[in-house]
């Protein structure tokens, strides 16, 4: 279903949409590109491949010489001559026959630009190439140029409310949301035209909700709805399940404490269409917050019960009867396949396809019927205290609580006891003359390395940037200038596109530090300490992160991607004394900028959690000696105030991650060199 709002922000083919010159997104990588492209509305300039927008039917999009290029398309589509779009060979040169002045009367074909044959390519409202009446015939654009250059959306006009029966921007279609007495989603007065649009929108909905005067659940206009006998097929139900005010949460203490999330309208309980909702729950104690990780039970369908709550971590508040307060967030009112990480049947799930079946991210908080957060009185029995708390024996999984105003986090080991982590600078059991700590990852790994370098006092640094359009380093080397101690290296390598991932990994030289430094085009004037050039110096510690740029990969797609990387990862791991894998950190879909339309449908924490689970099993099967560090649980627990943007964090978070890195290094050293 494509709403008016989604139409305004629809996927624009070939990246010809207006760029975000005033984009509020604070991700410095994307902002660097935005500074370059703000002067052109049709710019395809880029710094990295992930800045390039998705192209319908595009199999691979790359950033070549600072410009987004389509390098491969799904058969039978092929890249056009400019490398900006995927087109069908027979349609690649098709243009509309010239006719009378003004916009074309109808655009009934996709012109090779839409991924499915039943979709029509409709100009968006902001398309500035829609000609006014009377424009000279010779100055008119062909239909395909109008679409590609001005921006378009691929719409199923047999189902769309905003383009019902054709493209509303060019005349033949009608925007049903503008019909009098309609709010765009429901029938308010039985207007025949709107009824037709509604029935076309969801053919399987035989009877939309009917208007009554009183009901516990009301829409935003104060009008109430009663669900018809076949209420589970109501249009209002399909729309409103994605809104937090459709749901309510109840805290029940008898016969046992539990939290129940259910529809406000009791008659909706049991509807199969409500059986695929997804929620996030946090439990707050006196001075700490924990994520409720245990999944809910469901029964009847659409009624979700949370009954397993983690206890407080800090010993001072973990005894006796305690009041717990809850925060419940609706992630998706409908997300089939989310639990398995397979919301579509392919390796890669396209946002426009997920939107088409009614999947929409919410991110809104659910309150009880009084408009408050629920609370429960829980009887908490803490485990016997250990004095002093020992060091955490495992870093995956790593349960914890967030404690504002303290050390930020309190950790729990696998036995349920509080545990401590090491601090950067603690004595390492293994102290070679020069320790090479190497990180391979994306921007989060880069920020972590930069913070770790500060904490270690590594003031000498040199960086390299692979693209001319950014000052953000893709390689960085930190040391103290003496040629001893720690040399800290970051290399920009992560999982994004299958073929390029393999190529990037193959170019990483870890046979020696000298070979690595010579593989990067640092300035010729660079003077390295003589110990760096010893031919036998290999990485002491190798940290690998798959990153968060494979956001469109389903479980099967992510599995296929890591399987392709296995030979290269094995080569790198064999060259290192110790290998560690960093699980991908949590994201905040609410902070994804609007120009990345639909990213939140796959770049959400349910999918990230599933991808981490795939990575976890992959690592344990093929790299049994490697350590895993759980960054996901830590970043899933923090408030938005500790986030820099949707995927990056404030320095305090990176400092805690650096302590976890140091904890992992000490644990690996102790295994290699037991006391």
From TrEMBL:
* UniProt entry tagged with the keyword Transmembrane helix: yes
| Domain of life, source organism | Eukaryota
Q: Where are the transmembrane segments?
A: 187-205
Q: Which residues form the Protein CPL1-like domain?
A: 152-183
Keyword list, A-Z:
Membrane, Transmembrane, Transmembrane helix
List the Pfam families.
CPL1-like (PF21671)
Presence of keyword Ribonucleoprotein: no
Return the protein name: Protein CPL1-like domain-containing protein
Origin organism of this chain?
A: Rhodotorula taiwanensis
Query: What lineage does UniProt assign to this protein's organism?
Result: Eukaryota, Fungi, Dikarya, Basidiomycota, Pucciniomycotina
């Amino acid at each position: 279903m494509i709403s008016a709002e989604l139409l305004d922000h629809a996927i624009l083919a070939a990246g010809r949409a207006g760029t975000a010159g005033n984009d509020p997104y604070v991700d410095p990588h994307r902002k660097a590109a935005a500074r370059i492209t703000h002067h052109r509305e049709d710019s395809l300039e880029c710094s990295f491949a992930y800045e390039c927008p998705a192209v319908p039917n595009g199999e691979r999009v790359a950033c070549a010489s600072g410009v987004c290029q389509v390098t491969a398309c799904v058969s039978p589509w092929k890249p056009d001559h400019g490398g900006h779009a995927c087109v069908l060979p027979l349609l690649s040169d098709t243009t509309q026959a010239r006719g009378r002045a003004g916009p074309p009367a109808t655009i009934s074909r996709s012109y090779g630009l839409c991924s499915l044959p039943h979709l029509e390519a409709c100009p968006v409202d902001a398309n500035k190439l829609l000609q006014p009446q009377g424009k000279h015939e010779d100055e008119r654009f062909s239909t395909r140029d109008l679409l590609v250059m001005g921006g378009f959306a691929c719409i199923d006009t047999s189902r769309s409310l905003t383009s019902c029966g054709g493209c509303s921007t060019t005349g033949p279609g009608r925007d049903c949301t503008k019909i009098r007495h309609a709010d765009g989603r429901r029938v308010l007065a039985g207007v025949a035209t709107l009824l037709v649009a509604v029935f076309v929108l969801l053919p399987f909905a035989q009877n939309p909700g009917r208007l009554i005067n009183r009901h516990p659940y009301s829409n935003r206009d104060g009008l109430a709805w009663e669900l018809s006998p076949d209420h589970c097929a109501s249009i209002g139900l399909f729309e409103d399940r994605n809104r937090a005010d459709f749901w309510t949460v109840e805290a029940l203490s008898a016969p046992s404490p539990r939290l129940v999330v259910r529809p406000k309208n009791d008659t909706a309980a049991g509807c199969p269409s409500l059986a695929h909702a997804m929620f996030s729950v946090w439990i707050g104690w006196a001075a700490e917050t924990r994520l409720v990780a245990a999944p809910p039970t469901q029964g009847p369908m659409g009624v979700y019960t949370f009954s397993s709550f983690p206890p407080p971590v800090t010993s001072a508040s973990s005894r006796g009867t305690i009041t717990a307060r809850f925060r419940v967030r609706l992630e998706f009112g409908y997300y089939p396949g989310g639990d398995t990480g397979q919301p579509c049947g392919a390796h890669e799930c396209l946002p426009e396809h997920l939107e088409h079946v009614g999947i929409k991210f919410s991110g809104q908080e659910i309150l009880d019927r009084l408009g408050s957060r629920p609370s429960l009185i829980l009887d908490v029995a803490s485990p016997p205290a250990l004095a002093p708390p020992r060091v955490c024996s495992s870093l995956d999984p790593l349960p914890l609580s967030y404690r504002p105003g303290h050390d930020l986090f309190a950790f729990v080991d696998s036995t349920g006891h509080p545990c401590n982590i090491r601090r950067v600078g603690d004595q390492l059991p293994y102290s070679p003359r020069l320790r090479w700590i190497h990180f391979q990852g994306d921007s989060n790994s880069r920020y972590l390395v930069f913070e770790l370098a500060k904490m270690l006092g590594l003031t000498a640094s040199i960086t390299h940037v692979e693209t001319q359009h950014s000052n953000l380093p893709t390689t960085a080397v930190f040391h103290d200038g003496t040629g001893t101690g720690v040399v800290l290296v970051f290399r920009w390598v992560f999982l994004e596109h299958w073929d390029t991932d393999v190529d990037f990994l193959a170019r990483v030289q870890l046979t020696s530090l000298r070979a690595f430094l010579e593989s990067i085009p640092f300035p010729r004037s660079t003077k390295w300490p003589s110990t760096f050039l010893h031919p036998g110096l290999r990485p002491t510690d190798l940290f690998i992160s798959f990153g968060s740029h494979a956001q469109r990969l389903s479980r099967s797609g992510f599995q296929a991607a890591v399987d392709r990387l296995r030979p290269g990862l094995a080569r790198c791991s064999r060259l290192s004394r110790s290998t560690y894998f960093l699980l991908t950190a949590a994201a905040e879909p609410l902070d994804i900028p609007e120009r990345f339309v639909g990213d939140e449908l796959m770049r959400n924490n349910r999918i990230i959690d599933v991808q981490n689970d795939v990575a976890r099993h992959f690592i344990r099967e093929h790299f049994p000696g490697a350590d895993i560090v759980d960054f996901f649980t830590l970043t899933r627990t923090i408030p938005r105030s500790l986030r820099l943007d949707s995927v990056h964090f404030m320095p305090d978070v990176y400092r805690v991650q650096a302590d976890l890195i140091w904890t992992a290094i000490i644990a690996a050293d102790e295994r290699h060199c037991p006391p």
